[in-house]
Amino acid sequence: MRSYEKYFRMNRLPHIWCPGCGNGIVMKSIAKAAEQLGLDQDNTVIVSGIGCSSRASGYMNFDTLHTAHGRAIPFATGIKLANPKLKVIVITGDGDCTAIGGNHFIHGARRNIDLTVILFNNNIYGMTGGQASPLTPTGKKATTAPFGSVDTAFDPCELAKAAGASYIARGTAFHAKPLVDLIAQGISNNGFSLVEAITQCPISYGRRNKMGDAAGMLKWMSENAVPLAAYEKLAEEQKGDKFPIGVLYQKTAPEYSAEYAKVIKLAQGGK
Amino acid sequence: MSQARLMQGNEACAEGAMAAGVNFFGGYPITPSTEIAEIMAKELPALGGTFIQMEDEIAGIAVVLGAALAGRKALTATSGPGFSLKQELIGYGCIAEIPLVIANVQRMGPATGQPTSPAQGDVMQARWGTHGDHPMIALSPWTVRESFDVAVMAVNYAERFRTPVIILLDEVVGHMREKVVLPKAEDIEIYPRRKPNCTREEGYKPYTPMADLVPNPADFGTGHHIHVTGLIHDETGFPTGSSKVTEDTIQRLHQKISRVQDEITHYDEFFMEDAEYAVLTYGGTARTAYAAVKMARQQGIKVGMVRLMTIWPFADKVIKKVAQKVKKILVPEMNYGQLVLEVERAAAGQAAVISLPKYNTEIFTPKEICTAIEELATEVVK
Amino acid sequence: MGIEITTLKERCKGCNICAAFCPKKILAMDTLGKVYVTDEKACINCGQCELRCPDYAIYVEKKVEK
Ligand SMILES: Cc1ncc(C[n+]2csc(CCOP(=O)(O)OP(=O)(O)O)c2C)c(N)n1
Ligand code: SF4
Ligand code: SF4
Ligand code: SF4
């Protein structure tokens, strides 16, 4: 028994994810971040969408909400505004967050409402068997891109930054320990935080794209994830598949529920 | 007595919701429902409540579902196209048993249709718009004052039965101005948020149905650590693939409403004592129908009127009784003929049911309905 | 002082991640596809297996002498 396990509903384990699926690693990082911060289980809500990754809410020992595909962020917005004391963490997949939920993601970031969105990015629609997502890299195969995807992928971190998020970080399932800190900082940030966690889906993505087994995919992360400072020093031709990790962006900006509290005060005759 | 005020149906609906304890509104602007959002934006903060304009109607219902789970009484309002967008999450509210009120000020469709024209074309969508089986409560007011009462009732039913409740307004009632006297706050009965019947330590299960078949899921942030999902779940709230639980759940969702159907069936009858013919009507059309029935009465036609406020669950028993009494039932509606199908079903051949549809952007005139009544009375019953 | 490796067979899905990352190559899959330890004494308590297991099925601990 590890101390962070109190943040799991142990009676719900083992989880439903496939052998080697990275979701379990990312979920453990969330539990460890909760432990690091000493999150109060009575005042924290986990909200998820629909997808393999979104099943995580059911394993976490808080008030938890498994919503509809793409809609976790607006549900979470309602919870936060209804009771601003609550810490609200959103668990979402790449399709959930950037395809069907893309508009909500942009507007959550725009409002800079105090939510921490943990995006489990496995570059694919896992739950439905491997269709292309907006984060499937160009050229990679999916059941709906059998000849390789011709779409250009989003960079969700750049998207969140442009939209107004105040904390943006990227980690990977391989870098499990630093991921804990990135999540903890995101939860501590008073505003919209995005933590993109690159994770492996060996079953619906890795296999089809000849990326090896789960361990092979983790090794790919270790070879291609580069701390931001080092990444910025790379020449364009050195970048290839490489991507930056760490805290990518941070700013101080008015937080939505606090701003709305001012509206209430004003309307009630205060100033 | 409070003072008389001149107000719109939409305004009365917003006021009624607030009077019943609504302190959270989320939505997206759309004619002819926008006034409800605008009033909420202005009034709620002073009451310590919250208004948020969302990025679309799906977000508009998602945000109120979230707020309701965190303890607020919540309302969203929309019209035609927005109502279509909300359907998936109306179903979510049904299965996850989340109290919530959706005001739909109907306009003419399909699609953008005739955006500023009145219609009653969402009657069937209100009942069957989301996928899967679930019951639905939908209430349709015919006056400004009743828009207030219906809003209070909708909020109370949503809380009591932990289910989404739809207010079916139409452009006629929503935008009509009438002088109304609203009840005093202390005279308004409010159904409070249901609370857990025991603690986590005592084995609390959020979805255990109580005697009224309605469960008491705890509000988030009250220390119960509950799980809420749109998947079929057992009493613990966690998903299960069990056929038995699935069947029982779908059955219970229906029964929690059907067992109180008589109580929640609201309607009025006019001139029905000696009626040989009846006009079955609802919403804005009922106002014209009432004038038409009076005109027909002056001509000596024994016609009465039944006005449904509760559209869903459908007033089968009421219609059955009417069908046993009269020869013919006329159903004027601002659509191609929707609720008439239910009337036919419930009348079960005991009376002839005649549809009087209208779908050309214009509202009925009393003359039009009166002429239809005259035709009823002259035609020989086959 | 020895090292104790605990494996929870009911949770292990045999994904092989722990074995692939074990620097001492002392983890393997049995015929049922579950993890087992080939040589506990060789373990250096690096924690790689526990860190990377997606199923919380393997734990490493320094044995406390009683
Ligand atoms: C409205 C709606 N459309 C489609 C689906 C089917 N669906 C379920 S999960 C999913 C994709 C999930 O992919 P992602 O969000 O990347 O999560 P993952 O399963 O990879 O963790 C889809 C398309 C659905 N449940 N609801
Ligand atoms: S399909 Fe992929 S994402 Fe889903 S559980 Fe399996 S490995 Fe994980
Ligand atoms: S990493 Fe975990 S689940 Fe995978 S084989 Fe090892 S112990 Fe089993
Ligand atoms: S702690 Fe290190 S050496 Fe020991 S079994 Fe685990 S991975 Fe191998």
TrEMBL record, chain A:
Protein keywords: Oxidoreductase
GO biological process: cellular respiration
All residue ranges annotated as the Thiamine pyrophosphate enzyme TPP-binding domain in the record: 50-196
Signal peptide boundaries: none
SUPFAM superfamilies: Thiamin diphosphate-binding fold (THDP-binding)
Claim: Manganese is one of the keywords in the record: no
Keyword Plastid: no
A molecular-function term among this protein's GO annotations: oxidoreductase activity, acting on the aldehyde or oxo group of donors, iron-sulfur protein as acceptor
Pfam families (UniProt xref): TPP_enzyme_C (PF02775)
Protein name: 2-oxoglutarate ferredoxin oxidoreductase subunit beta
Automatic annotation (TrEMBL), chain B:
CDD domains per UniProt: TPP_PYR_PFOR_IOR-alpha_like
Oxidoreductase recorded as keyword: yes
Pfam families: PFOR_II (PF17147), POR_N (PF01855)
UniProt keyword annotations, A-Z: Oxidoreductase
InterPro entries named in the record: 2-oxoacid_oxidoreductase, PFOR_II, Pyrv_Fd/Flavodoxin_OxRdtase_N, THDP-binding, Transketo_C/PFOR_II
Domain Pyruvate:ferredoxin oxidoreductase core as annotated: residue spans: 275-368
Top-rank taxon, per record: Bacteria
NCBIfam families, A to Z: PRK08659.1
Name assigned to this protein: 2-oxoglutarate ferredoxin oxidoreductase subunit alpha
Organism: Pelosinus propionicus DSM 13327
From TrEMBL, chain C:
Location of the 4Fe-4S ferredoxin-type domain: 3-32, 33-63
Gene3D superfamilies: 3.30.70.20
InterPro entries: 4Fe4S_Fe-S-bd, 4Fe4S_Fe_S_CS
Natural source organism: Pelosinus propionicus DSM 13327
Pfam families: Fer4_7
Protein name in UniProt: 2-oxoglutarate ferredoxin oxidoreductase subunit delta
UniProt superkingdom: Bacteria
GO molecular function: iron-sulfur cluster binding; metal ion binding
PANTHER family for this protein: FERREDOXIN SUBUNIT OF PYRUVATE:FLAVODOXIN OXIDOREDUCTASE-RELATED, IRON-SULFUR-BINDING PROTEIN
Keyword field contains Iron: yes
